[in-house]
Amino acid sequence: MVSNIRVECINNTEQFCALKNEWNTLVEHSIHPQPFLLWEWVYTWWEVYQKPNYKLQILAVYDNEQLLAIAPFYINNEHWLVRGRLRMLGEGEAREDEVVSHYPDVISLASHRSDVVKALVAYLLEHDNEWSFGQFRFMLGDSLLNEMQQQISQQYDHYTVSSSQSYAIQLPPTPEEYVASLSRSMRKQFRSRLNRMQSSGEIEIRSAQDYADPHEAMDILERLHRARWESREKGSIFDSLSFKTFHKTLLNRLLDQGIIDIRVMYHDGEPIAAVHNFNFKKRCYSYQSGFSSQDDKRFSPMVVFDILEIQALVKAGYLEYDYLSAEGDNSYKAKFKCESEPVYETLWLKRGWQSVLMRSYRRIRAQGGKVYRQFKSMGTETLATSLRQRIFGEKAS
Fold this sequence. Notes:
- This protein is of the alpha+beta class.
- The protein has two domains: 5-160 and 345-351, Aminopeptidase, CATH 3.40.630.30; 172-318, Aminopeptidase.
- Helix content is 40%, strand content 27%.
- The chain contains 13 helices and 13 strands.
- Strands 1, 2, 3, 4, 5, 6, 7, 8, 9, 10, 11, 12 and 13 form a 13-stranded mixed β-sheet that branches.
- The longest helix is centred in the C-terminal third of the chain and has 25 residues, at 353-377.
- This is BioF2-like acetyltransferase domain-containing protein.
- InterPro entries: Acyl_CoA_acyltransferase, BioF2-like_GNAT_dom.
- Residues 184-333 form the BioF2-like acetyltransferase domain.
């Protein structure tokens, strides 16, 4: 059969709904099969977070009647100064409501990667009157988005930064091998805390499906998550009604498929740790956790729970445990024998005033960072003297 590759734009909710089965089948067989690209995740995000000035721009790539790829875009026209912002469905909500859709990408069959990239780039350039710039977050380096970025660079400048690290464990054949791979101090901490817990009460681990109402597990997770962050005098993402609505809806849609689970560890009848996981293609994605801060020094409940869960996953034949990515210091994840890779944020800017403005901003920011580092390295008196010289033009004595 002669190849006849074409791109169709899906821009209404009815068409979006109709794609569900084909969409998930494509994810199953795609280059990067993962739960944050499933129809349920992406559609639920659209239901909860869409605004009147958001426009669906889902691009489906076909070869004759075969679906090769889906690029789950939308266009954000929220701000009059930056209208036409091309984004991936699953990102763009306010920071205080952010669900973080990890590893966004085009969903594509590996056998047609090159053709898909060319077709999507050609479509975006041909329809560049519909969008003015692209903005993407939490992107991996080997993504199709990154490959598209290289090809689109003939007409668009791109500015990419490594915003965080992604941490994952390649699981060994046996639970014993995993524990043996940990550092001596980590093994000692795990065994001593586990023995302490076992000698002072019964340990029980429950899944969301073990509760009469699975949402009880979500409530426990919320309570433990709040306790964890309130002990650091920080707010909880569960303060966001949109965030809670998203995850409650998703729990209803994915629990029976075994893709989502909330696991709770009890000690002596009390919940002391919980993890919110997504399971897909023999990979477990650790999305969120919470633990009892008052038991942290005595039991290190999250360390014990994580290692027990990883051992259980190894027994079940899982291949990988992915801690995902987050901003800030996540060095504790390295203790669990993780491998890491950078996660990127990128902007695609049409050559012209947008690109000039971004270059100016980057220069100012770089200079500001240089001055800040100089000030930070100075003592108080030296800093005050330097400020007087810069502001009032005083000469150095």
